[in-house]
From TrEMBL:
InterPro entries: AtsK-like, TauD-like_sf, TauD/TfdA-like
Organism (species): Actinospica durhamensis
Key word Iron present: yes
A Pfam family this chain is assigned to: TauD
TauD/TfdA-like domain span: 19-282
Record-linked PANTHER family: ALPHA-KETOGLUTARATE-DEPENDENT SULFATE ESTER DIOXYGENASE, ALPHA-KETOGLUTARATE-DEPENDENT SULFONATE DIOXYGENASE
Keyword Phosphoprotein attached: no
Protein origin, superkingdom: Bacteria
Protein's UniProt name: TauD/TfdA family dioxygenase
Cofactor: Fe(2+)
Assigned protein family: Belongs to the TfdA dioxygenase family.
Length: 321
């Protein structure tokens, strides 16, 4: 199901819901919705359709707390815990604090937690403390990146698998490690995970193909580290083309919902040493499927304490493939 117009309507107990594009390829602003209230099935279905179409949605989250953020995210499936290795917010096992003062500067392109077998299907980020300048989040559409590839490169990518791992520090690339960041790295890598995923993932609901790479993808199966890096860099360059990217300038009390199966994101570290704090809640996902129907497989690391495996039928995906 897709939305072809720039504006769509649904209802929450009679309240009009407007969905308006932010860019041509990714992102829409949703207005007329009170996230502190319960959502009816028609509204949830309209949000899911908009997410399929736009990949990332921005909501006004005035009055929303951690419990409300979790309630909203549960409309789209069972929640994961906060993270496989990084501690949750005290008293809230499903909430991950993304705090610049605690080492949480994810200034590297990535898709959330792809080093496990079933990464989250969707992520929600809610803004609590926003710097007066900078601190934007970039979100990229990996489906349009795939369609941008020249046909021979698309055909090649369809055959590739990549090993994703958490054993390197994606958040501090190219910078000296402070004591805080060194401790964050130690915690982040305290359990080693490696998982092989298809480089081209087929979305189970829409059948779209997207480049499933990003910062945790460290090598191509069957190739050397050097060969892998060159190929991954070429594919990644299509994901991060400006045409495929939403650059969101946060205000306080906003919530962004993005489809983790077909996007990447990057938190820009351009706000000096000012505080920036978001809370993240993620929805359990399915095992990725490639264009030939092959499913991802775990190489190392048990993430059963972090997430269940969502049972999402793959019929639409395989039919489109």
């Amino acid at each position: 199901m897709t939305i072809t117009a720039d504006e769509a309507t649904a209802s929450q107990t009679g309240v009009a819901l407007d969905i308006r594009k932010v860019t041509g390829r990714i992102g829409a602003r949703v207005s007329g919705l009170d996230l502190t209230e319960e959502l009816d099935q028609a509204t949830v279905a309209a949000i899911r359709a908009a997410l399929n179409a736009h990949k990332a949605l921005v909501f006004d989250a005035a009055g929303l707390d951690d419990e409300g953020q979790q309630r909203f995210a549960r409309h789209f499936g069972e929640l994961t815990t906060a993270h496989p290795t990084v501690p949750a917010l005290d008293g809230s096992p499903n909430v991950l604090p993304v705090d610049s003062e605690g080492g949480g500067r994810a200034n590297h392109w990535h898709t959330d937690v792809t080093f496990v077998l079933s990464p989250p299907q969707a992520s929600t980020l809610r803004s609590l403390v926003i710097p007066p300048y900078g601190g934007e989040t970039l979100i990229a559409n990996s489906a349009t990146a795939y369609t941008d590839l020249p046909e021979p490169l698309r055909a090649f990518a369809d055959t590739l698998w990549a090993v994703h791992t958490n054993v390197y520090d994606y958040a501090t690339q190219g910078r000296a490690l402070s004591d805080t960041h060194a401790e964050h790295r130690r915690i982040f890598t305290s359990i080693k995970y490696e998982t092989a995923h298809p480089v081209v993932r087929v979305h189970p609901l829409t059948g779209e193909r997207g480049l499933f790479v990003g910062g945790f993808a460290q090598r191509i199966v069957g190739l050397s580290a050097g060969e892998s890096r060159k190929i991954l860099d070429i594919l990644q360059s299509y994901v991060t083309r400006p045409e495929n990217v939403l650059r969101w300038r946060w205000s306080e009390n906003e919530l962004v919902l993005f489809d983790n199966r077909i996007t990447q994101h990057y938190a820009i570290d351009n706000y000096d040493d000012l505080p920036r704090r978001l809370h993240r809640v993620t929805v359990a996902g399915d095992i990725p499927v490639g264009v030939d129907g092959g499913r991802s497989h775990s190489i190392e690391g048990d993430a059963s304490h972090y997430t269940t495996v969502a049972d999402i039928p793959q019929a639409a995906a395989l039919a489109a493939a």
